[in-house]
Amino acid sequence: MLDIAGDFDLPPERVWLNAAHQGPLPGIAAQAVAEMVRWKQQPHNLKTSKPFTEIPGRLRSVLADLIAVPDSELVLANSSSYGLHLVANGLDLGEGDEVIVAANDFPSDILPWIRLQASGLKVVQVEPAGEVLSVDEVRQAITVRTKVVCLTWVHSFSGQVTDLAGIGEVSRSVDALFVVNGSQGVGALPISPADLPIDVLTGVGFKWLCGPYGTGFCWLGPRASDRVSPAKLYWLNALTADDLVNPGLDLSTITPSATGRHDIFGTANFFNFAALIESVGLVASTGVARIHEHNLELASHLVDGVDRSLYDVGDRGDPDRLSSIVLLRPLAGSVEDVSLHLETEGVDVAARMGKIRLAPHFYNGDADIVSALAALNGYLQ
Ligand SMILES: Cc1ncc(COP(=O)(O)O)c(C=O)c1O
Predict the structure, then answer these.
(1) 262 shares its domain with 294
(2) Are residues 273 and 129 in the same domain?
(3) What is the best residue among 18, 22, 78, 80 to mutate for testing ligand 1's pocket, by most ligand atoms within 8 Å of CB?
(4) Residues β-bridged to residue 177
(5) What is the CATH number of the domain that holds 277?
(6) CA distance linking residue 353 with residue 325, whole number of Å
(7) DSSP secondary structure code for residue 131 in this structure
(8) Residues 6+ apart with CB under 8 A from 48
(9) What single string gives the DSSP state of each residue in 217-265?
(10) How sure is the predictor about 46, in pLDDT bands with cuts at 50, 70 and 90?
(11) Are 338 and 322 in the same domain?
(12) The last residue of a domain, from among 225, 255, 283
């Protein structure tokens, strides 16, 4: 069991079991924000171009290291939607092209493609028999017209883990890109996307990475990078303020740097990105494999201890499909009533699709699960 609650500032009278919504900011990241606020209060600190290049550069590096990819392939973003739209809009999809998504997926994975239906793109929404699409279900839906398969890695509404290797193979068989939303996995489960048959991995910084809201990233693997056209030429990707010191700048010859050409504008948004550097650093130094082991232990403690006459724990048969996100369907009472009861008892969870979602992370300990079980099993008593 890890013991790092001391790196956070969670109130001792409450139990935060909702990393799948928001990861709390660790103390070290809060300190970074305080320093950045100081910079902005006294902007002589911002006079040189150094902070504008250093902060995005360091963030790109810590995120790239975390998923074992080259810095040059990492895009800085403000959400996972940023990366998903970047790919959807950069592929020139239209009449005759198809995209496969899961009908029960998080909206971020479906909406960028729905928007392109107006240009003739066919969005094939496949309803999984279980919670996430199986390799066979993708194989049945895929055609030579399929240009993209876009799925969530860890499903927000069930916690089930998608078979990336299997579905990636099927996608490659028709030369489609496999676009994966890792928002509910990166920081909690180990992943090296370059070792898998996937082409894009997007994610948020504010859940399992415990960064500020409004942060995210996108890895574009080589197959995706070749196909996605850059939609902008951002001055800070090609120049710095130092280039503006003297007259005579010829903008017609400016070319973007390969690294960062897909980044969101304003990458030196100090308050958010300086904090995310520290949050990712904490996750990385703790070790994602250790975090995964710790979180799974907490999740199985929860599942083993919950009163089965009050909650249905769903299908937990295949250990390869399990994450630390646990969904419980209340058998007595509504999901709203149960979550209100838990909130009153000081246990913070989410209500999603008629179920209670509990998402323990590395700052939680066994005592948190004991408190959560007491509150869950005490419902109606
Ligand atoms: C799988 C998944 N993707 C994305 C998000 C967040 O959306 P976005 O970053 O696109 O705003 C969430 C949860 O909020 C999620 O569960």
Answers:
(1) no
(2) yes
(3) 80
(4) 148
(5) 3.40.640.10
(6) 14
(7) S
(8) 241, 242
(9) EEEE-HHHHHHPPP----HHHH--GGGGSSS---GGG----STTTTPPS
(10) confident
(11) yes
(12) 283
Residue nearest atom 3 of ligand 1, based on CA coordinates: 183
- What percent of the chain lies above the pLDDT cut of 90? 88
Q: How far is the CA of 202 from the centre of ligand 1 (A)?
A: 10
Q: How far apart are CA 342 and CA 376, in angstroms?
A: 7
pTM of the complete model: 0.97
- For residues 215 and 169, state if they share a domain: yes
Domain C-terminal end among 237, 262, 283:
283
The first and second tokens of residue 47, run together, are 């006079």
Is the pLDDT at 366 greater than 90? The verdict is yes
Q: Which domain holds residue 10?
A: 5-25+287-377
Of 162, 212, 163, 214, the residue nearest 184 (C-alpha): 162
Same domain for 269 and 159:
yes
Burial class of residue 303, CB neighbours in 10 A (0-12, 13-18, 19+): middle
300 CA to middle of ligand 1, Å?
Answer: 25
